[in-house]
Amino acid sequence: MCKKAIIAMSGGVDSSAAAALMLEKGFHCFGITLKLYRGEGVCCSLADIDDARNVSLNLGMEHHVLDFTEEFEEQVVRHFIETYEQGLTPNPCIECNRRIKFNLPLLMQGLMQASKTFASKMFTSRMFTSKMFTSTIPLPFVFDFFVTGHYARVTQDALSGRFLLQKALDDKKDQSYVLYSLTQQQLGKACFPLGALAKNEVRKIAKDRKLVNAAKKESQDICFVPDGDYGNFIEKYTGKAYPHGDIVDLEGKIIGRHKGLIRYTIGQRRGLGVAANAPVYVTAKSTAANTVTLGPDSALYSKSLTAGNINLIACPDLKKPMRVMVKTRYLQAAQLAVAEQTGTDCLHIEFDSLQRAITPGQAAVMYDGDVVVGGGTIM
To answer: Is-contact 16 55, C-beta < 8 A?
Structure first.
């Protein structure tokens, strides 16, 4: 029996190349584009949807748009804002993968609704006899793989049977960091065809197949904050005026005024509005006192962290301290450390060397070689 694959089509070159590869492997593929954000953003635009639809048509693949704007707003945008309001710095891409993109029940619900809507429109327009307008998604629809254009790999451990998340072979494009929250159920369905490829190889795949977005540029911005101004976005979204407060030095002396805690993050240097004889950085924030603390670069370094909301992939739990490599930011090089599980949902990580600007709200992701052990949210 031909295996079925759902292809998440963003409109970009990566997901398009992934779709082409799966079709060439003989899978019966259905393309879906997730409409996630209502406002102006760097993804989910009409142009992106058109690109995804055109690529699907070019490849002979059925395509549907699933409207998850309400779920995205509730689960990702509001979480982003609430986390900033708590004085933390979130990574919304991780939450989107955790709560929306790889949420299998949500995807199934969306596909079911899309098929019903599609059938209703066909009947109403009397075009239901045309092959071009016939939805072939059966109800209930069972699929073997959920495919995305992420640069990562999934394998299965022969001894334990656990699904493992591994780094992409192209270390510069590796996205395993933002996928660390995936569960065994999600990894069991996930397929990343680009995990063994370099970006230039992916573009060649798209170009050779004459896909319309072969040369399309990619964005590194948060999709719903295209200009990168998180403070303005949060104020506009919530309608709140976040209170200004004192900027203090390491001794607690007032040296200036801040424009609301949501506009500052650990390690920030620019836009502080404080005159100093030497470079200063945000070293701490206090929601209780409504203060931002500044200090020299040397004050940003520490050797340990605590993480909560943990997800372990390579094993169900850490029975003893484990030697690992850890990333505390997406683009950071992994650092040597020892990780210890101190509770059901808590990790303590001790680094071999001092680490700069460990930021609460970001993720600490652990690696054993190229395998993701798991990770959690820095507290």
So the answer is: yes
